[in-house]
Amino acid sequence: MKLKRLEKNKYKKILLLVIFGIVFLVIGIFIDKTFSLYQVNKSFEFVNGKVNYYGHSDVYFAYYNGSTWLDDIPKKNNTDNLTFEKAICDNDATIEWNYEEWTPKVKNLTKAKTRCSLYFKKDEMNNISTCGKGGTNAATCIKNEASKDTNNLANDNTSDKNIRYIGARPNNYVRFNNELWRIIGVMNNIKTSESDVGESRLKIIKAESTIGIQWDSKNSNDWATSTLKEVLQQRSEVNSPLIDNVVWNLGGIDNALNTAINFYTAERGTLHYGNNATTWIGKVGLMYPSDYGYAVGGSVRNNCLAMNLNSYNTNNCYLNDWLYNNSYQWTITSFSQTDKSVIYVDKAGYSQPSSDTTLLSRKHDVVYLKSSVKIISGNGSSSSPYNISL
Questions:
Q1: Angle 328-334-338 (CA atoms, 0-180°, nearest 5)?
Q2: Are residues 118 and 140 in the same domain?
Q3: Are 239 and 301 within one domain?
């Protein structure tokens, strides 16, 4: 009888092991199905962690549309119009989402086998504009759009109360000079002369940049005499009947540790180095540091606008700013403490003074359209940009 009891207990143990094995197998299949494994190694550029040797660490991603599990990460510009919403990771890790590369960047990775759940939602920021219907005045129509599309457009709350396109991917594309440009916003009080009455005009920036450009070959930060200014005035858009000569403010700034509103005020001030000009009348210029600062959108907008522009590489500011393009970009604004420095946007997403103006960087042409310009067709998307005429 004792032998039989032992055999019975043996069979119970085997049965329990089989049951536990089946349970663990089911759990393993579920985890394998739900979480995508990413082996983290020295060449895994999307991870910025603290693990001494990445080769011994794993990161697991799971993807959701709301509460619905997804087989894989949604593709960029997917047909379901899904965009990144948030991420939840264990082991205190966090996610920064790069909209341009459409990839997650894991931060504070301190432990192996960290799991991150990435949540996507229908992109409400891709509202389709109706400004292209009926040939309406461009500035007026976009101002009206701002009252109902608070995801793509916002009042900058400056003294001029300009309307800005904001966020990572607003529909602000326009066809100009047979090229693709983007609308920075509706700028108010733009003058054609110092004594002129200001008007509301669309301010647009060329979507494609030119690389390897010096701000000034003489290493000066006076825009009125700069070589880049001369280069821009020879561009083909100068001859367009859709733009005017306007007054550009050339006020400098003596401290790069400033917010967008402080930059905006300084740009319209008289601070400069030596005899540098504080205004210039011309057709083609560059963006201001404040343009970059005010283009931030999304849930981080208010926090970012309270930050200095040299901190826009944190808190997802630059990743929610459509004027960021992962490169060094010149602005038109000088750093007034020296005669050899201007403000530029760094590749890392923040702005700072350059060491000199002979450095090679990118430039995006910027112009102001005439106040009478109309939008005659298109919806502002990259596939159907606004078409404009007088």
A1: 110
A2: no
A3: yes
User: Which residue type occupies 93?
Assistant: A
Q: Which domain holds residue 296?
A: 136-389
Residues 314, 113: Cα–Cα separation, whole Å: 26
In a domain, 40, yes or no: yes
Closest CA to 346 of 367, 365, 361: 361
| 117 and 192, same domain (yes or no) | no
List of residues 6+ apart from 272 with CB closer than 8 A: 250, 251, 252, 278, 334, 336
Report the amino acid identity of residue 147.
S
Are 343 and 353 spatial neighbours (Cβ–Cβ below 8 Å)?
Answer: yes
pTM score of the predicted model: 0.71
Our measurement of the distance from residue 199's CA atom to the centroid of its chain's CA atoms, rounded to an integer in Å, reads 28
Same domain, 60 and 160: no
Question: How far is residue 104 CA from its own chain's centroid?
Answer: 15
Q: Per mean pLDDT, which of 5-14, 103-112, 200-209 is the most reliable? A: 200-209
| Tens of pLDDT, residues 125-157 | 445 567 767 678 999 999 999 988 999 999 999
24 domain residue, yes or no: no
CA quadruple 349, 353, 355, 358: dihedral sign: positive
Within this chain, do residues 68 and 174 fall inside the same structural domain, yes or no?
A: no
pLDDT interval class at 33 (50, 70, 90): very low
Residue 60 DSSP label: E
Contact (CB, 8 A) for 142 and 166:
no
The torsion of the CA quartet 188, 194, 197, 200, rounded to 10 degrees, works out to -20
